[in-house]
Amino acid sequence: MTHIKFDTSKLKPFVHENELAEMQALVTACDQELRAGTGAGHDFRGFLDLPQNYDQTEFARIKTAAQKIQNDSEVFIGIGIGGSYLGARAAIDFLSSTFYNVKNERDVPEVYFCGNSISPNYLADLLAVIGDRDFSINVISKSGTTTEPSIAFRILKAKLIEKYGEEAAKGRIYATTDRAKGALKSEADAEDYAEFVVPDDLGGRFSVLSAVGLLPIAVAGIDLDQLMAGAAAARSDYQDSDLEQNEAYQYAALRNILYRKGYTTELLENYEPNLQYFGEWWKQLAGESEGKDQKGIFPASANFSTDLHSLGQYIQEGRRNLMETVLIIDQPRYDLEIPRTADNLDGLQYLEGKSMDYVNKKAYEGVVLAHTDGGVPVMSVHLPKQDAYTLGYTIYFFEIAIAISGYLNGINPFNQPGVEAYKQNMFALLGRPGYEELGHELNQRL
Ligand SMILES: O=P(O)(O)OC[C@H]1O[C@](O)(CO)[C@@H](O)[C@@H]1O
Predict the structure, then answer these.
(1) What residues contact residue 179 under an 8 Å CB cut-off, 6+ apart?
(2) pTM, full prediction
């Protein structure tokens, strides 16, 4: 019995029964490549065993640092971009109050993220939110040289120094970076910041269960042991390459079957606003892993029922290249009853006494049938609860599925060469030393 359930019951009009079985040989080969390390990008398979083999000493240091931050800071800032913040943001949103940063009664700091854009507005607004309150920062960059977080780090470090002075500021800077190299590593060593390691064998988008995600997640008061236990359970549940047993592999195979039939965009959907950032995390995981060699499923996300009133028309009747994967929380954190009224002015009498979750689930069922009838294949992933164990389990489900999916489509799921193109141009246009020739060429084209 797996902890989460992958439901393919509505795929019948789109996938013939034999098609999944026909994928078995390929899935078995991809599974062997992944586990034996004979596939492309094999140096970055650390996520496979991470829930079992993580560094216990580092894990304990993360918890201790989180406690210190909880005790001495009203505000905590995670600085990072892509895989260096999306997992933490997704986890904190998934597991916390929808309004965790504006709760009046709180025993953990407010948590914000920056360094994920180059917007001066965003950073100026964040500085105003911090105001003169006590704060700490966690700068997270595997390479240690990414422009967006580097700029944000400079600005926030200056604010720390202004408030606490050079020496005390250092005690409020937590650096998560490469074990040995990069500008951030050199600075952290020189300035004696508390340091945490991004393991060598993890790409950013697979790093949420390392210090990258775990320090911010722990600061937000989330139970790391439960998170890792859930991921470890998934690791043991998704060992078997048999498609009848392994639902993560089923998901990987089915989305590839559908992709080959022309369903080239996958929407990851939810019915709980707290899961919006899980969709953002998944988009990087899937997009950066699979969009290569002029192919790959385009990952998009939608939040329901909200987006049914914006994207719903397109999904129902627009271009037929969409497939959907719905994350559905079987038991929400809270439920509310729809109140009774003496009159029936709003016409809602037929819902009186029913729970909001009941209505939410009926919306889900209605949407699945409508979209299926409209020609959109829908898969669902049922999560029993919105807790840390389930989140850890679900993270692992998608990580291993996307890795296998990449191999099924014949690409290296663990590199991201295409991200460099914009960076090179930006450096050249900014006049970074060494980029003079390219800068000249680009400026002529502008
Ligand atoms: O942690 P870093 O090295 O700053 O990189 C952040 C993000 O940027 C990318 O390297 C792409 O540029 C992603 O893969 C990564 O998640």
Answers:
(1) 185, 197, 198, 199, 200
(2) 0.98
Is residue 251 within 8 A of residue 264, CB to CB? The reply is: no
Helix, coil or strand: residue 367: helix
Phi and psi at residue 355, to the nearest 5°:
-95, 155
CB 268 within 8 A of CB 325: yes
Catalytic residues: 288, 423
Q: In ligand 1, which atom is closest to the CA atom of 207? A: 16
Ligand 1 pocket test: pick from 89, 150, 415, 419 the residue with the most ligand atoms within 8 Å of its Cβ. Answer: 419
pLDDT per residue as tens digits for the range 240-257 = 999 999 999 999 999 999
Q: Are 134 and 74 in contact (CB under 8 A)?
A: yes
DSSP β-ladder status, 378-385 and 5-7:
antiparallel
Q: Is 283 in the pocket of ligand 1 (CB under 6 A)?
A: no
Count other C-beta atoms under 10 Å from residue 345's C-beta: 8
CB of residue 142 inside a 6 A radius of ligand 1? yes
* Second-level CATH architecture of 5-39+227-409: 3-Layer(aba) Sandwich (3.40)
- Domain limits, CATH 3.40.50.10490, in the chain: 5-39+227-409, 47-222
Q: Count how many Cα atoms sit within 13 Å of the Cα of residue 379 in the half-sphere of its side chain.
A: 24
CA pair distance 218, 99, nearest whole angstrom: 18
Residue 82 Cα to ligand 1 midpoint, Å, equals 6
What CATH number is given for 47-222 in this structure?
Answer: 3.40.50.10490
- The tens digit of pLDDT for each residue in 340-398 reads 999 999 999 999 999 999 999 999 999 999 999 999 999 999 999 999 999 999 999 99
- 284 Cα nearest atom in ligand 1: 16
ipTM of the complex: 0.98
Tokens 């505000």, located at residue: 75
Tokens of 303: 């939040």
How far away, in angstroms, is 444 Cα from ligand 1 center? 29
- Going by C-alpha positions, the residue among 208, 89, 190, 93 that lies closest to residue 142 is 208
Q: Cα–Cα distance between 302 and 317 in angstroms, integer?
A: 16
Atom of ligand 1 nearest to the CA of 203: 14
> ∠ CA 398-400-401 to the nearest 5 degrees?
60
